[in-house]
Amino acid sequence: AFYLDKKYPEKPIIPEDPYLKGQCLLMEEWADESIGLKGRKAFIGALNQNQNFRTSILPKNTPDIVKNLVGAIPSDLLDILGTGIGFGADAVKEAKQGLKQDLESLCLILENRPYLITDRPTLADLTVAGLSILLKFPKGNYIDIPESLRGKGIPGLADNSNYERFFTWRDRLYADYRKSSNNGNTSTDSSPTSIEID
């Protein structure tokens, strides 16, 4: 982000004003530690608890036998295995509770504002939007996921109307600033675009 601001000073993503810059950097760090960590726990918990969700995220070319094996793993076993590495039922429940408060707070911030810090997107907006992808997949064609998963996500978060303001904002950010995952091509090449950084 700092490199991009130096390279393209006409379109900064970190505010110059010290107060706004502090808010931006603080929110970016908060999002990493809050939405990022809790989002992964809640996502893994949703996979553990929901066989259909678990198998639906497998790649299209996954053999049926593998899909059946993955779907047949008992949720109780996954919970026991997850407990040893911090992804047990209690940790998942705590993460979801924290995410509910986070999403409520973000909705309040966005109630009368187009973006989180200023009147244009900043690093804070991009970080929060990017890290929230596991909570609810965008409805648009911005990432290469099956059509059936678009707009879906963690039960209790993705389908909760109290957080609709946030997810609408996030999807608008994706629509405005992210290219379609197929970029209009019919090619299935999903290799990343290479860039050169000095």
What does this structure look like?
- By secondary structure, the chain is an all-alpha fold.
- Helix content is 54%, strand content 0%.
- The protein has 8 helices and no strands.
- It has helices at 2-7, 18-49, 51-56, 64-72, 75-83, 89-109, 123-131, 164-177.
- α7 (123-131) packs across α8 (164-177).
- The two termini are 14 Å apart.
Comma- or semicolon-separated keywords:
globular; mainly alpha
Distance between the termini: 14 Å
Count of alpha/pi helices: 8
State the shape: globular
The chain-level structural class is mainly alpha
Instruction: Give the integer mean of the pLDDT values.
Output: 80
Order of helices and strands: HHHHHHHH
Give start-end ranges of low-pLDDT stretches: 183-190
Percent of residues in β-strands:
under 5%
Number of strands: 0
- Could you give a short account of the major beta sheet? none
Instruction: Report the radius of gyration as a whole number of Å.
Output: 19 Å
Percent helix, as a range, is 40-55%
Question: What is the oligomer described by this structure?
Answer: single chain
